[in-house]
TrEMBL record, chain A:
Domain (SUF system FeS cluster assembly SufBD N-terminal) ranges: 2-167
NCBIfam families: sufD
Organism: Winogradskyella damuponensis
Record family assignment: Belongs to the iron-sulfur cluster assembly SufBD family.
SUPFAM superfamilies: Stabilizer of iron transporter SufD
Organism placement in taxonomy: Bacteria, Pseudomonadati, Bacteroidota, Flavobacteriia, Flavobacteriales
Boundaries of every SUF system FeS cluster assembly SufBD core domain copy: 176-404
Name the UniProt record assigns to this protein: Fe-S cluster assembly protein SufD
From TrEMBL, chain B:
CDD domains according to UniProt: ABC_FeS_Assembly
NCBIfam families: sufC (TIGR01978)
Domain called ABC transporter: residue spans: 2-246
Family of this protein: Belongs to the ABC transporter superfamily. Ycf16 family.
InterPro entries reported for this sequence: AAA+_ATPase (IPR003593), ABC_transporter-like_ATP-bd (IPR003439), FeS-cluster_ATPase_SufC (IPR010230), P-loop_NTPase (IPR027417)
Matches recorded under Pfam families: ABC_tran (PF00005)
PANTHER family, alphabetized: ABC TRANSPORTER I FAMILY MEMBER 6, CHLOROPLASTIC
UniProt-listed Gene3D superfamilies: P-loop containing nucleotide triphosphate hydrolases (3.40.50.300)
PROSITE patterns in alphabetical order: ABC_TRANSPORTER_2 (PS50893)
Name recorded for this polypeptide: Fe-S cluster assembly ATPase SufC
Keyword ATP-binding in annotation: yes
Keyword Nucleotide-binding: yes
Alphabetical keyword list: ATP-binding, Nucleotide-binding
Length: 437, 250
């Protein structure tokens, strides 16, 4: 039985036993039909031309992982930004781990999707927001059909959240292969401000496939800083589908740090429904071996006087492959749009590949849109400069890589997070140098 | 200290240095002058170990050890320092962090532990005062957005921090106004001792008014065609290089 057949038949067998609002059943049933009709995307689709899921779909994944709740904080501490006080929503094999978490209902909701999908008091929110901006494509639909758990965050009007929220999904490998489908809903109301750090972390060498959907709503003048840390094990793959719907004068930033995993696909979509909106997407990708990272971004400029900024840096070692496909749509109404896009890459090996493709669809006439992609090697004269100061080749190369990624790092607003990412990069580059950048 | 014998070097099969002989002893200052394209910067780069250049004949001895097979960082660890004509901009790495890394990597190569933070700070303070460098400057990204003069002053600051045995200053005077020139020259003079040596590569006499050389060499077409004392620099300033070219070509 193929994974698709397995998923569809599991849905049929268990859907009646799932306890969610009745309206959700209808949405889920509709979604599985979409997935059944479309199946997993193939390279025949324009958007998937450079990313094949074949190698990750071949495993016999358990689609309803068993509940194995054995982790202690000290075992997994290193995956937390533990130096700071934070709200925590932690999952182990798709199930909520209360002993690792710190949720709240005190003045804001930092809690669980399962609660939002089942408890009557959340029904209005769910009716207003759930599955409203997630794409109706096969992978998001698949997630919708299986959506039962994840983070539910609702920040009320004028609330500046006092500390970051960490969302971590662990997989323990209690079964041979696991497929996880976390579903997050984040509503940030007028004038509210929140910082969120999200991570998917496998603790096993067994295959893990995560197909995640996150819907983020930033209402009027709200500010959201979202950080994704993707530094997973070599047999873990992630399809991250994130949708951000912005209202007027809101500011949403998503940073994606892709350092690990077998295959990572980021579908990151921004929709600007209001004026004077700012959308920022930044990323650093550093991979090697046969790793594959695909950034597929969309900014949809719908109304006038808005901005979008994209800045993605990639460093590719060994036989790794990267894809950057950045689409910017500027509607006829969206005059005075400023849209910037940059994708800079360094290939460290003859066998590494990057496919980079900016796509601009502009229907307004008074706009400023720029895009630039570069693919290069390391600057030899800079290498000589550093080495002539006594810095060995490997460390000099690392220093230049830090410099190359610097303007992405610069906008990380949580110092402890920045420090952690710097350390992950240092480890990834095989150096032990204490740059406090 | 430095002994260069019949050095030939080329880049992409194009011969640039065609038989250089030069001996620099501890405590000496040598100036290398010459017209554009004569090979001055190449000589500096070859001594410092730039890999693009291939040494095709001859050798470079530092304290009687052939350094040709050594990487640039290994030469730096042995005390060779090159002040760049065009220092490279490294965004995101502060001058201070860069110096810490350079010093501690050099110490590591010598089997020493990292320099204690307290000592490092003290040294940074002393050396930055020597070159009249503002503390704020040290937290800026290395060379990024620096003026020409700031870049050169920063090069000499690095020299002061690394305390090299052999310092090669490649066109350190270019881009400097008269005040910056004085500060840079003053810094170099204070760092001079009987145990180290300086090679000043320059086009013009004016730096040599401040850093007074013991020997002046004229490099032309890949060879040292004339050597003399400091008065040779004055002669070149007054007469230009044409008479040298004529002498050589005659």
């Amino acid at each position: 039985m193929s994974l698709k057949e397995k998923l569809v038949s599991s849905f049929m067998a268990f859907e009646d036993t799932v306890d969610v609002h009745s309206s959700i059943h209808d949405i889920r049933t509709e979604a599985i039909k979409t997935f059944e009709a479309e199946g997993f995307p193939t390279k025949r689709l324009e958007n998937w031309k450079y990313t094949s899921l074949n190698s990750v779909l071949k495993h016999d994944y358990s689609v309803f992982p068993k509940h194995e709740n054995k982790l202690e904080f000290n075992d997994v501490k290193k995956y937390f930004i533990h130096e700071i006080d934070a709200y925590k929503i932690i999952f182990i094999d798709g199930k909520y781990a209360s002993h690792l978490s710190q949720t709240t209902h005190d003045g804001l909701d930092v809690c669980l999707m399962s609660a939002a999908l089942t408890k009557p008091k959340y029904k209005v929110i769910i009716d207003n927001y759930f599955n409203k901006i997630a794409a109706k494509d096969s992978l998001s639909s698949l997630n919708t059909a299986f959506s039962s758990e994840g983070a539910y965050i609702n920040i009320p009007k004028n609330k500046v959240v006092d500390k970051p929220i960490q969302i971590i999904h662990f997989s323990t490998g209690s079964e041979a292969a696991v497929m996880l489908q976390p579903r997050n809903l984040i509503v940030v109301n007028e004038n509210a401000h929140v910082q969120i750090i999200e991570r998917h972390q496998s603790l096993t060498d067994n295959p893990v496939l995560t197909n995640s959907v996150t819907e983020i709503f930033t209402n009027k003048r709200a500010i959201v800083d979202y950080y994704k840390i993707q530094n997973d094990k070599e047999n873990a793959s992630l399809i991250d589908n994130t949708f951000v719907n912005q209202k007027q004068e809101s500011l949403a930033k998503v940073h994606t740090f892709s350092f690990g995993g077998k295959l990572t696909r980021n579908n990151l979509n921004f929709y600007q429904n209001g004026e004077r909106i700012d959308s920022t997407m930044k990323g650093i990708t550093i991979i090697g071996n046969k790793q594959h990272v695909d950034h597929n971004t969309l900014v949809h400029h719908i109304e006038p006087n808005c901005e979008s900024h994209q800045d993605y840096k990639g460093i590719f070692n060994d036989s790794s492959t990267g894809v950057f496909n950045g689409k910017v749509v500027v509607e006829k109404l969206a005059q005075k749009t400023n849209a910037f896009q940059a994708n800079n890459n360094v290939l460290m090996s003859d066998k590494a590949t990057i496919n980079t493709k900016p796509q601009l669809e502009i229907f307004a006439d008074d706009v400023k849109c720029s895009h630039g992609c570069t693919i290069g090697q390391l600057d030899e004269s800079a290498m000589f400069y550093l080495r002539s100061r006594g810095i060995p080749e490997k460390e000099a190369r690392a220093l230049l890589m830090f410099a190359f990624s610097n303007n992405v790092m610069d906008s990380v607003k949580i110092p402890e997070l920045k420090n952690r990412i710097t350390k992950i990069i240092a480890k990834k580059l095989g150096v032990n140098i204490g740059f406090d950048l | 200290m430095l002994k260069i014998n019949n050095l030939h070097a080329s880049i992409e099969d194009k011969a640039i240095l065609k038989g250089i002989n030069l001996e620099v002893k501890a405590g000496e200052v040598h100036a290398i002058m010459g017209p554009n394209g004569s090979g001055k910067s190449t000589l500096a780069s070859v001594i410092a170990g730039k890999e693009e250049y291939e040494v095709t004949e001859g050798n470079i001895l530092l304290d009687n050890e052939d350094i040709e097979e050594l990487a640039a960082e290994e030469r730096a660890h042995k005390g060779v320092f090159l002040s760049f004509q065009y220092p490279v901009e490294i965004p995101g790495v502060s001058v201070t962090n860069f110096m810490k890394t350079a010093i501690n990597e050099t110490r590591k190569a010598k089997g020493l532990d990292d320099m204690p933070a307290k000592d490092m700070l003290k040294m940074i303070r002393e050396k930055s005062e020597l070159l009249e460098i503002d503390r704020k400057f040290l937290s800026r990204s290395l060379n990024e957005g620096f003026s020409g003069g700031e870049k050169k002053r920063n090069e000499i600051f690095q020299m002061a921090m690394l305390e090299p045995k052999l310092a090669i200053l490649d066109e350190t005077d270019s881009g400097l106004d008269i005040d910056a020139l004085r500060i840079v020259a003053n810094g170099v003079n204070k760092l001079k001792s009987k145990d180290n040596a300086v090679i000043v590569i320059t086009h013009y006499q004016r730096l040599l008014d401040h850093i007074v050389p013991d020997f002046v060499h004229v490099l032309y077409n890949g060879k040292i065609v004339k050597s003399g004392g400091k008065e040779l620099a004055h002669e070149l300033e007054a007469k230009g290089y044409d008479w040298i070219k004529e002498e050589v070509n005659a």
